[in-house]
Amino acid sequence: MPFPHLLKPLNLGFTQLKNRVVMGSMHTSLEETERGFEKVAAFYQERAKGGVGLIITGGISPNNSGMLAPNRAVMQTAQDVKDHQLITQAVHQYDCKICMQILHAGRYAYVPEQVAPSAIQAPISPYSPRALAHDEVIEQINDFVHSARLAKQAGYDGIEIMGSEGYLINQFLVKATNQRQDQWGGSFENRMRFALEIVKQTRQGVGDDFLIIFRLSLIDLVEQGASRDEVLTLAKQLEKLSVNIINTGIGWHESRVPTIAANVPAGYFSGLSENLKQQVSVPVITSNRINTPELAESIIASDKADLVSMARPFLADSQFVNKAIADKSDEINTCIGCNQGCLDKIFVRKTATCLVNPRACNETQMNFVKANRVKKLAVVGAGPAGLAFAKYAAERGHQVTLFEKSNKLGGQFNLAGKVPGKSEYLHTIRYFNKRLSQLGVTLQLNKAVSADDLASFDEVILATGVNPRIPNIFGIEQAIAAGKVLSYEQVLQGEVKVGNKVAIIGAGGIGFDVAQYLSDNSQEPASVTDEKESFTQEWGIDLSLSHPGGLVAKQITPAAREITMLQRRLRKPGTDLGKTTGWIHRQHLKNKQVKMMVGVSYEKIDQQGLHISVKGKPRLLAVDHIINCTGQTEENSLAQFINDKPCHLIGGALDASGLDAERAIYQAAQLALII
């Protein structure tokens, strides 16, 4: 059997999980939409059908004060029970267990009526919390227990008590947010009382035949966070109170250390769950940056955890487990850790989806049924938009031919894959390549298409992408001809040897990618060990937890090159980067000592270098090379020659702004639905 450790059942006494794969908690915002619980039920049902052993829902609050944002889901009433029964009944059709996560946001609640152990405002919140009185603490415990009882009535197999990521329970646990002087604060014995009372009374309320998972923060990554002894002490107390499973929580939301972004090495935090597993006898779940069955198998096989939790990978591919069971992991649509379709949307109160799988969270409305009339379709351009359209159209039964002028699939994703921290973008190309082959899509590589080549097709889809925009700077044409000015494509493809002094014109997403690529001092891909060590040093992480909170002084290695990023607009560079990852990219380049200048006017380029003015003051940047990252223009010139049949534009060919792969793939899917 493939992946024998990952796919081995787990006996929990009164119940059994069919494998060690957990779909971890992740809020989608579906509950808050019209007919939301029907949509959530369909979402989870598809993952259950896909073979996962245990699903943990997104956070459901025990009361109104615990909601992350206004109108978020709670579990308080008989109607709530009825709504959640739609979910449990859907999931239980496929021999899958499901637990409801109970989450009280505390001072992370995005509402003015915040409550917390102490009146200490979170740095990521505009509101200041009110400290809970003793009687109110008791009420909060009662609400947790009440929600757990209702979850059992709703048909859940158990609940997960959210005790990590800086939410209310976690806020009681650490000195940074708990400055109380009563029985709920002071010593660690007092600070952990809130968590233990919730677990103790919940067990009494639900009985022994109901799973209780506690999500324990193994490393807070904030100052005055929990120490190693405190984490282990709490874990052992939870074990005594008959918790069935301990799940791994990593980092607080306010932490300035990446925990799930693509630049976090794969499986980086699994050593923490290994340390915990050695101290307790209850099963331990590991989590964060695990996105392939091979990695998950190796973690369990090496006894670092009993189960592996993955959330975003089940957005990317609901059939992840079934494909692993069939030993077809090369067919998995792998999560690339971009956060663009999921977390970036959640944090601006939009419904989640997935960049590489736009059907995620759209299961009730995006179904690619067989077409009534089979058409012969030509797709020109094999970047993300063209690949996605070809896949979805072929799944509907259309005869698809995909033309690409270069010698490989992937378009701009091939460039993204060169950037440190983005190598997993190449997984998407691998997935599409495999899927198109299965679907019988005809590929014509190294083919520059003319209108005559398209004569026999019923319709044409132009996914021809973009051209780099050339800014209007005196002397730029001569500098391009002389090799002084380079395009971002030339740099990322390694076509030229870039000098030691570089100016990057443009501080958008591409400018940041190029700066990151050029600031990487290694000539060859780093080994797994070296990658982890470099990440540890750059972000100042103490995985041994000898320092409470797990933070130590950073060890920064500046870039070998002198790099200056330039931007016309008077605003923070990278403003349009992802909500949850932009700060990481900015901090990384700051760590590398990349200079950033805003309010720049470009005067001319000559042999001396790049002449600019900043706030009216002239300056000369005597650089070896100038990299043009000032945006793109649509490449859709072929459209004007196609007059005898429908011609559709998608992706960059339709709109070059931002080079938004999520938008491009979504457009492709939407067109494939109706063509």
Give structural notes.
The chain is α/β, with parallel strands linked by helices and 675 residues long. The chain has 3 domains: 10-346, TIM Barrel; 376-467 and 635-674, 3-Layer(aba) Sandwich (Rossmann fold), CATH 3.40.50; 470-521 and 557-630, FAD/NAD(P)-binding domain (3-Layer(bba) Sandwich), CATH 3.50.50. 31% of the residues lie in helices and 17% in strands. Strand 22 and strand 23 form a beta hairpin. The protein is globular and about 75 Å long. It starts with 9 loop residues before the first strand and ends with a helix. The model has no long low-confidence stretch (mean pLDDT 96). This is NADPH-dependent 2,4-dienoyl-CoA reductase. Its cofactor is FMN; [4Fe-4S] cluster.
